[in-house]
Amino acid sequence: MEAAQALADLTEISTQIKAAVLFRADGTVDGATVADATRFVEAARALLSAADGIRAEPLVQLEAAIADGSVFVVRDGERVVAAVTGPEPTVGLVFYDLKSCLRTSAGSEEPEPPKRAPKRKPKEEAEDESSEA
Amino acid sequence: MKRKLLVLIAAAGAVLAALAFLRHGGARRERVDLYFADGSMVSLGEGPDAERLLGLGRATLDAAR
After folding, report:
1. B28: nearest CB among A18, A63, A87
2. Residues B5-52: tens digit of each pLDDT
3. Which of the residues A21, A47, A60, A70 would you substitute to probe the B interface, choosing the one with the greatest number of B C-beta atoms within 10 Å?
4. What are phi and psi of A32, to 5 degrees?
5. Over chain A, what is the mean pLDDT?
6. B53 pairs with which residues across the strands?
7. Is the C-alpha dihedral spanning A33, A38, A42, A43 positive or negative?
8. A70 pairs with which residues across the strands?
9. Which residues of chain B are within 8 Å of residue A11 when distances are taken between CB atoms?
10. A6 pLDDT above the threshold of 90
C-alpha cells in the first residue's frame, strides 16, 4: 500500500488524529496529510532526536502531551510516523493505529512476488484448438 | 439542626475536593512519555529534559497546523 493511501486510511479510521506524516530517518517525506510536510517532519525529527538522547536504549515511540493536544511519534527502523491529536486522546488506540499505518505502508516497499508462468493447457486440448483453427 | 450541619459540612467537603482535583489532577498535566525498545517507559513531567521535549512537542504541534 502506498504511503498516501496508508495515511488516508489512518485519518479515516482514527478520528482522533488531526494530522500525520510518514517519513524516513533522513527526513525524506513519504506522505503527509498537511500542506507543509517539511516543517512538520523537521519538528518531529528534532523532538525524536532530543528524546533519543535521554537514554542509551533505542527509543521506539513517544507521546508529548501538551495542553493543546498530543504529539505521537512511532519509529520502525528507518521509517517513522508522526501524528498530532487533540487534548486527552486514547493513547493506546492512537499508538495502535500508527503502528498499523507503518506496517501497511511498509508493505508497498516489499518486492512483488515473481509472477507465475501461465499454466499450459493440456496437450490434447491444445491440439484440439489448433486443429479447429 | 444537626442534620443541616452535616449537609453543610458534606457540601463544603465536596467543594474543597473539587477544587483540589481541578488544581492538581483535573487539568491534564503536560508530560512526555518515552517508550524504549526493551519495553521500558519513562514519563517526564518536570525538569530540564521535560521542558526541552515539551518545547519541541509544542513546535511540532504548531508545525502540523
Report:
1. A87
2. 888 888 888 888 777 766 655 556 899 999 999 999 999 999 999 999
3. A47
4. -155, 155
5. 87
6. none
7. negative
8. A65, A85
9. none
10. yes
Please tell me the predicted confidence (pLDDT) of residue A116: 59
Structural contact between residues A20 and A37, judged by C-beta atoms closer than 8 angstroms: no
Amino acid at B12: A
Are A72 and B33 in contact by the 8 Å Cβ rule? The answer is no
Output Rg (C-alpha) for chain B, integer angstroms: 20
A94 and A85 Cβ atoms separated by less than 8 Å: yes
B57 close to A71: Cβ distance less than 8 angstroms: yes
Class of domain A3-111: alpha beta
Q: Which residues of A touch B31 (CB under 8 A)?
A: 64-65
Direct distance between the N- and C-terminal alpha carbons of chain A, in angstroms, rounded to an integer: 44
* Mean pLDDT, residues A75-80 taken together: 94
Q: How far is B39 from chain A (nearest CA, A)?
A: 9
Query: What pLDDT sits at residue A121?
Result: 55
Strands A79-85 and A69-76: antiparallel
Mean pLDDT of A19-29: 96
CA B47 to chain centre: 16
Model-level pTM?
0.76
For chain A, the structural domain boundaries read 3-111
* Beta-bridge mates of residue A83: A20, A72
